[in-house]
Design goal:
The chain is mainly β and 334 residues long. 9% of the residues lie in helices and 29% in strands. It has one domain. It has six helices and 14 strands. The strands form two sheets. Strands 1, 2, 3, 4, 5, 6, 7, 8, 9, 10, 11 and 12 form a twelve-stranded mixed β-sheet that branches. The radius of gyration is 22 Å and the shape is globular. The C terminus is likely disordered.
């Protein structure tokens, strides 16, 4: 499942679709087992359960989009890809991407190494990926990969068979990253966030997402916006202590996806659940084209994903004792 409409009363955070994270994916590249695909979707055009004003196709200008990577299991970012976007003018928008590691990865402001500037945002599905050092990236509108029968969901699971997300799009950030830029050990955790600036210039985190749908459907109204503003490292204290009003059954150390390295032979989608390799081409053109997208797993507890070098080898059978017999000898031996 996805993470659409994660604010109170199934609205978008800040009543703005551009601040609404809908999906976070991490999976192994189908062309290079030493590379990973990171995808963060936001700004859904799909109909909302509650009235939300329509917005343009652009990323929120000046907001800070973060993809956080935890390499040591403490729920703090040890590496981060950070993006900001320009104003949307005459159908055009550009972005800048940073790569931060160490203490800089935890800073709310864009910091670290600038990987690329003036990245063109695609609004017609025709833009090509941009090479930025070791990574390839693309930002723009893509077909929404989610399927949902909203009427059936909201009315006792009396399914109508209608896909409310058909023909709708999201704004995608797609990175193809060498696994060694993400992994320093056998496992990592991934989550994304979007923050916008207050009138005084400080940042306010509006949404976060790792595993799907925990906040929209498990936290009660009155708690969802607060949850979106918090950090994974604080979830144990905020949601697992006695007396909490939240019904969240885990922490965002379990709410962000844990992933094994691609060479483990196990593939993991958004929820950290192992599954078949996602089909489709994340860099393919999109608007009006329902490009097959990575399968989205259910909201099962997160599992971890191993480093490529941690491949488990098959155990060889012990050699048989005695002389080796050829085919004729084997027949005679019987």
């Amino acid at each position: 499942m996805a993470n659409h409409f994660s604010a109170d009363y199934l609205k978008s955070p800040g009543d703005d679709r551009r601040l609404d994270i809908t999906d976070v994916f991490l999976f192994t590249s189908s062309k290079d087992a030493d590379k990973m695909l990171l995808i963060v979707n936001s700004n859904p055009s799909a109909p909302a359960p509650a009235p939300i004003a329509a917005r343009g196709p652009e990323f929120y200008p000046g907001a800070v989009y973060r993809i956080n990577v935890d390499t040591d299991g403490d729920a703090h970012a040890d590496a981060a890809f950070i993006l900001t976007f320009s104003d949307y003018q005459d159908g055009h928008q550009t972005g800048t991407i940073w790569y931060a590691t160490g203490p800089e990865a935890c800073q709310p402001e864009p910091v670290g190494e600038v990987l690329a500037e003036s990245i063109p945002v695609s609004f017609d599905g025709m833009a090509l990926p941009v090479q930025a050092g070791q990574i390839r990236l693309l930002a723009g509108r893509r077909s929404d990969p989610f399927f949902a029968d909203i009427e059936g969901t909201l009315h006792g699971f009396a399914w109508t068979g209608h896909d409310d997300f058909a023909g709708n799009n999201v704004s995608s950030i797609i990175l193809e990253v060498p696994a060694d830029m993400l992994f320093t050990g056998p496992q990592i955790g991934i989550w994304a966030s979007i923050s916008r600036r207050r009138p005084d210039g400080t940042l306010e985190q509006m949404d976060r997402d790792g595993n799907p749908t925990l906040n929209p459907f498990i936290n009660p109204d009155g708690e969802k916006d607060l949850y979106n503003s918090r950090q994974p490292a604080d979830d144990v204290a905020n949601y697992m202590s006695s007396g909490t009003t939240s019904t969240l059954g885990g922490t965002d150390h379990g709410v962000f996806g844990h992933h094994d390295h691609p060479r483990s032979g196990r593939n993991v989608t958004k929820s950290g659940q192992r599954c078949a390799r996602p089909r489709g081409r994340p860099f393919a053109r999109a608007r009006g084209v329902r490009t097959p997208a990575p399968a989205v797993a259910s909201s099962a507890p997160a599992r971890r994903m191993v480093h490529p070098r941690a491949v488990r080898r098959r155990r060889r059978r012990p050699a048989r004792e005695g002389p080796r017999l050829d085919a004729a000898a084997r027949v005679a031996h019987r």
